[in-house]
Amino acid sequence: MTWLQAIVLGLVQGLTEFLPVSSSGHLRIVSEIWFGDDAGASFTAVTQLGTELAVLIYFARKIFRVVAAWFRGLRDATQRGVDYRLGWYVIIGTIPIGVLGYLLKDEIRTAARNLWLVATMLIVFSFVILAAEYVSSKYYAARQRPIDEVTARDAVVMGLAQCLALVPGVSRSGATSSAGLFLGLERRAAVELSFLFAIPAVTASGLFSLPDAFQTGGPGLHASGPQLLVATVIAFIVGYAAIAWLLDFVSKHSLNWFVGYRIIVGVTVLGLLSTGVISAT
């Protein structure tokens, strides 16, 4: 991997991690179109540590409050309030993707990165986002629940939805946020929860993938240690700005604004694949 490639891919990771457009899908597409090769699932997982650090810092007060309340609640039943329950919900919502991610790790790094699949998922899941927004506006317009009213059922459903993000092109934030909208949560609450649910899973995935990211054998682009570090730092800086922008955006607009973009990118990639301009693997 060249330094230009590392910088570009770090920017792509930071820009797309929190938007419902699939950062892993975009890294796969950009690395193939611009550089003619795949940066790999390990590079994606490691640079996601940068964007998750952005989440930790942006939501530091909330995370500290939830963690402190969770530990207090373990010792004292009278301290089991909203934050205590939210701590458990994050744990519950992380378990499904942790289990499936481990069991399917080989497929995630190989077959799931096929560009035919990535492009198709970009298009197909766009209609899931559309459906979620429709259900939210039609059936929950009068009463959408804030984050303080999240239940264990919400955590289970959103946790299962997060598993879809194992397939590049789906989008972690898109899957969990859409599930939240289907359940009647406020859009900002659904997006915030998608960020919180991602912290344990993405952090664990990034740390688990560190050894693989430094392997130089096999196909694909291989980044050096300094390149990985710079790409991760770039992803952190850009990702932090993206969090603030997205939370403000979803407070005023629906996720449908991203649907057209997803479809255009998906159709474009399918066209490039069909004409042999780029390779699927």
Please describe the topology of this protein:
Blueprint: H1 3-16, H2 23-35, H3 41-58, H4 60-75, H5 82-103, H6 105-109, H7 115-139, H8 152-162, H9 172-182, H10 187-213, H11 225-250, H12 259-274
Helix pairs in contact: 1-2, 1-11, 3-10, 3-11, 4-5, 5-8, 5-10, 7-9, 7-12, 8-9, 9-10
CA gyration radius, whole angstroms: 19 Å
Overall number of domains: 1
How much strand content do the residues show? under 5%
- Low-pLDDT runs of 5+ residues are none
How many strands in all? 0
Question: Which sheet architecture does the biggest sheet show?
Answer: none
Distance between the termini: 18 Å
Q: SSE order, as H and E?
A: HHHHHHHHHHHH
Features:
globular, mainly alpha, 281 residues
Structure description:
The chain is an all-alpha fold and 281 residues long. The chain has one domain (3-274). It is built from twelve helices and no strands. It has helices at 3-16, 23-35, 41-58, 60-75, 82-103, 105-109, 115-139, 152-162, 172-182, 187-213, 225-250, 259-274. The protein starts with a helix and ends in a 7-residue tail after the last helix. 49% of the residues are buried. The mean pLDDT is 91.
Summarize the structure.
With 281 residues, this protein is mainly alpha-helical.
